[in-house]
Amino acid sequence: MDRLWTPWRYQYITKAAGSARTGIPAALDAYPHDNGCVFCNLIGAVRWATQHGTPQADAERAGNILFQGEHCYLCLNAFPYSSGHVLIS
């Protein structure tokens, strides 16, 4: 079995250069919570920023959110393996 290795992701995977709270983009780092889930943190940070005065479009752009529905959202992967890779959560 071949292993897919992408060394430029190592810091992200090991959290060597980032926040201990996964899923929170640097632009939304003011988000005061940690839900323990990358996806919950991402949408929570976007919603928190919007509730605290950040225009919704700017908050969604910072979190790579393409669409928000009532129970799900669509976002771009920060480190995609292929072009056009999106996440639905």
What does it look like?
- With 89 residues, the chain is α+β, with helices and mostly antiparallel strands.
- It has one domain (7-88).
- It is 29% helix and 12% strand.
- A 3-stranded antiparallel beta sheet has the order 1-2-3.
- A hairpin with a 4-residue loop joins strand 1 (65-68) and strand 2 (73-76).
- Helix 2 runs antiparallel to helix 3 (56-62).
- The longest helix has 14 residues, at 38-51.
- It is globular and about 45 Å long.
- The mean pLDDT is 83.
Keywords:
three-stranded antiparallel sheet; 89 residues; 3 helices; alpha+beta
What is the structure about, briefly put?
With 89 residues, the chain is α+β, with helices and mostly antiparallel strands.
Q: Helix content range of the residues, please?
A: 25-40%
| Percent of residues in β-strands | 5-15%
Helix vs. strand class: alpha+beta
Distance between the termini: 29 Å
Number of domains: 1
Runs with pLDDT <50, length 5+?
none
Oligomeric state: single chain
Strand order of the largest sheet: 1-2-3
| Count of separate DSSP helical elements | 3
Got a strand count?
Answer: 3
Q: How large, in whole angstroms, is the Cα Rg?
A: 14 Å
Mean pLDDT: 83
Q: Please tell me what the overall shape is.
A: globular
Report on the biggest sheet: 3 strands, antiparallel
* Helix-strand topology string: HHHEEE
Helices and strands, with pairings:
Elements: H1 10-14, H2 38-51, H3 56-62, E1 65-68, E2 73-76, E3 86-88
Antiparallel strand pairs: 1-2, 2-3
